[in-house]
């Protein structure tokens, strides 16, 4: 199975489930099929959602600051997460 280009720090759009169409940040990898996502509002960092990679569409944006902090084990605040996602949402609306 081809692995989708979704890694830690990637901003993705949910393609399936109750959260369909919402933006999320990938905050962890479980295995080849699953990742952990959060958006700082519905799914906060302390209650991340386990999601299949095939149910996520990558936007092509990677938040390097988030990826670096997660790799170092430092926490990400929910308000920072919401800020990064709102900036990405503005880009998507303009296109």
Concise overview:
With 95 residues, the chain is an alpha+beta fold.
Structure, described:
β1 and β2 form a beta hairpin. The chain is of the alpha+beta class. It has two helices and five strands. The chain has one domain: SH3 type barrels (Roll). Strands 4-3-2-1-5 form a five-stranded antiparallel sheet, covered by helices on one side.
> What sort of overall outline do the alpha carbons produce when their principal axes are compared?
globular
Helix content: 25-40%
CATH hierarchy class name: Mainly Beta
Tally of individual domains: 1
Query: How many β-strand runs?
Result: 5
Structural class: alpha+beta
- Per the CATH scheme, the topology name is SH3 type barrels
| Unreliable parts | none
Instruction: Describe the strand arrangement of the main beta sheet, using strand numbers.
Output: 4-3-2-1-5
State the distance separating the first and last CA atoms: 31 Å
What is the count of helical runs?
A: 2
Give the helices and strands as they follow along the chain.
Answer: EEEEEHH
List the helices and strands and how they pair.
Layout: E1 10-14, E2 23-29, E3 34-38, E4 49-52, E5 56-62, H1 64-72, H2 78-94
Antiparallel strand pairs: 1-2, 1-5, 2-3, 3-4
Observed structural traits:
95 residues, alpha+beta, SH3 type barrels, 27% helix
